Amino acid sequence: MKAIRDLFESHSSTSTETRPHPFWVMVRKEIAGHIRSWRFLVLLLLILLTFWGSISVALGNIREVVNNVKDPDRFFLYLKLLTTTEGTLPPFHVFLNFLGPIVGISLGFDAINSEQQNGTLTRIMAQPVYRDNLLLSKFVSAVTLVGSLLLTLSLLMIGGGILITGVLIEAEEVFRIVGFTILCTVYVGFWLGLSILLSIIFKQASTSALTAIGIWLFFTVFYQIIIDLIVPAANEFSETDVIRYNRQVLNLLRLSPSQLFTDATTTLLMPSVRSLGPITMEQMAGAIPSPLPLRDSLMIVWPQLSGLIAATTMCFAASYYLFMRREIRG
Amino acid sequence: MTNPIIELKRLTKTYGGFKAVNELDLTVNKGEIFGLLGPNGAGKTTTILMMMGLTEPSSGTAHVCGFNATKDPLSVKRLVGYMPDSVGFYDTMTALENLMYVGELNGIPGSEVEGRALATLDLVGLSGDAIHKKTGAYSRGMKQRLGLAEVLIKDPEVIILDEPTLGIDPSGVKEFLTLILRLSREKGLTVLLSSHHLHQVQQVCDRVGIFVKGELLAEGTIDTLSNRIFAEKSYEVHVSLANVVDLPWKDEAEMLQLEAVQSVRVQDQLIGITSSKDLTPDIVRFFVHKGYEVSGVQKKEYGLEEIYERYFERN
């Protein structure tokens, strides 16, 4: 952490000769503020602990997994490191499914309202900067932090893996892991965008935090229950109906960002996943259980990724709309 | 000296049906210190926010330094320093860091910003350990000084201070106002400050405007304002008698015949007489002569507080 801080501080002193754009001044200040805060330290510890826990469990089981002849993915050692589990601890990408929202929410829930409460918003707005730059700098700084944190972790894992197993990583795995990192960042970005939006709507930071957590809980816990209630029981339908209903249920579930994230990470990290919906026997016939090439996996993931980006953009657009004409008086 | 640097024309702001500022016309000239006086909720802050382009007026225009504050707020913000009524800083940063951040936002190159920040802090009287202290530990008076430093670091042409004396002790207020006066005179700054304490700002303002319920009731130097009041209602003497006076007062007509007496008001034992000259001795003599038992005589003087109160009363 010290190193990251030094990096930013040395950066600030070297780029001093040119006149920095106010936007980057703001981003730098935000990043410095996050890094120095206890909140970020706690989040960092949480992520490091889960990462360490899940990777060490995976390392313990890696020999059996790689020797499992039935698994078409067994040669992707590094992907296995990220996805293997023995059942006691979920793998890292499943952890991130609920850690991501927490990171996003906690980095953004007080973005605007705390500035308003402290009386800093009026002061900053009285400087010659565009109003949207403040909003954007809050978003960009947090996403930069999360992105670099996840990338660092992935690189650490690859480096550690090479040291421990002695197996060199393949280019495809690198791309898949980088893709996974980008996906995670986008996922965190969605929750960040949502919590920034809530921080504009609600004057109290605690209200916006609570609302954000409420939305998250709704999508992780209650959404599935509601969908199950709406869709009629499947046993009275013919096979084609069942498939149709299944598809509908999946599509409804995909309105939830965590479902999109799960779909996308599974496809990226498990190359043998070839479809995210139900497949009929005819489709399965003749298919060889082998890993998909990266390009095909990306094709499957694409709708999920664009869905997440669209949701993030929507949150952000709403934030802009609300913030640009907002009375900034504290 | 007519070189308008702030020009408000029929500036209006309505919130729903409520008119916060109503067709305000105001001109402030370059280099003068203008005091915007009014009670809380008179629309002072709203007016200031419109001048900074932070709030859109419902109608009318605000020109500051030649720029339209609504259409080109960035140009205005480059030349105008604004200190809000509740100054807040990033509590986890030191005073110097807070100031340097604002300096950088104003486009001061990184190589100069620290030097300029230190010079500005010195100017407002913050030095030593205080500048490396986190602003969370700052007292209200120190925050006010830091706020002023922040206004000055951008080298503004106009500074707008919203309630700068709020919440600091009397000696601090005096010191702070003297500082503003000195800076304004030294650097030729135009200062607009709002306050609801007339006696605090009367010592520094060249001109004041009295602002009540979104309207500017009176504007001018303090002398002009008090003369206007004096012309209308100059001296008032209250005479308390030992016994209740029967109404109508039998001597009222005779009293009114005294030279310069304008009106007489009788209420139980108290008789109030207003006149355009100081008639206290004549009035006392009159009562004694008529055989009343005078238990007290009080001459009411019109200080600036009274001017201010009178303006508010009337509305």
Q: What would you say this structure looks like, in words?
A:
The complex is a heterodimer of chains A (330) and B (315). With 330 residues, chain A is mainly α. Chain A is built from 14 helices and no strands. Chain A is globular and about 65 Å long. In chain A, 75% of the residues lie in helices and 0% in strands. Chain A has one domain. In chain A, helix 5 runs parallel beside helix 9. Chain A starts with a helix and ends in a 6-residue tail after the last helix. By secondary structure, chain B is an alpha/beta fold. Chain B folds into two domains: 4-220, Rossmann fold; 234-301, Alpha-L RNA-binding motif (Alpha-Beta Plaits), CATH 3.30.70.1560. Chain B is built from eleven helices and 14 strands. In chain B, the strands form three sheets. Chain B has a six-stranded mixed β-sheet, with helices on both faces. In chain B, strands 2-1-4-5 form a four-stranded antiparallel β-sheet, covered by helices on one side. In chain B, helix 3 (95-105) packs across helix 4 and helix 4 crosses helix 5 (140-152). The longest helix of chain B is centred in the middle third of the chain and has 18 residues, at 170-187. Chain B is elongated, with a radius of gyration of 25 Å. The model of chain B has no long low-confidence stretch (mean pLDDT 85). The A-B interface holds A 12-13, 15-20, 22, 25-26, 29, 33, 36-37, 118-120, 122-130, 325, 327-330 and B 45, 49, 52, 54-56, 74-75, 77-78, 80-82, 84, 86-93, 101-102, 104-107, 109-111, 113, 147, 150, 154.
- Overall mean confidence score, pLDDT of chain B: 85
Query: Mean pLDDT of chain A, as a whole number?
Result: 84
Q: What fraction of residues of chain B sit in β-strands? A: 25-35%
User: What is the CATH topology assignment of the largest domain in chain B?
Assistant: Rossmann fold
Into how many domains do the coordinates of chain B divide?
A: 2
Distance between the termini of chain A: 34 Å
What's the total number of strands of chain B?
A: 14
What Rg of chain B do the Cα atoms give? 25 Å
Coarse shape of chain B: elongated
Q: What structural class do the secondary elements of chain A suggest?
A: mainly alpha
Count structural domains of chain A.
1
Query: Strand-residue fraction of chain A?
Result: under 5%
SSE string of chain B: EEEHEEHEHHHEHEHEEHEHEEHEH
Uncertain parts of chain A = 1-16
Separate helix tally of chain B: 11
What distance separates the N and C termini of chain B?
32 Å
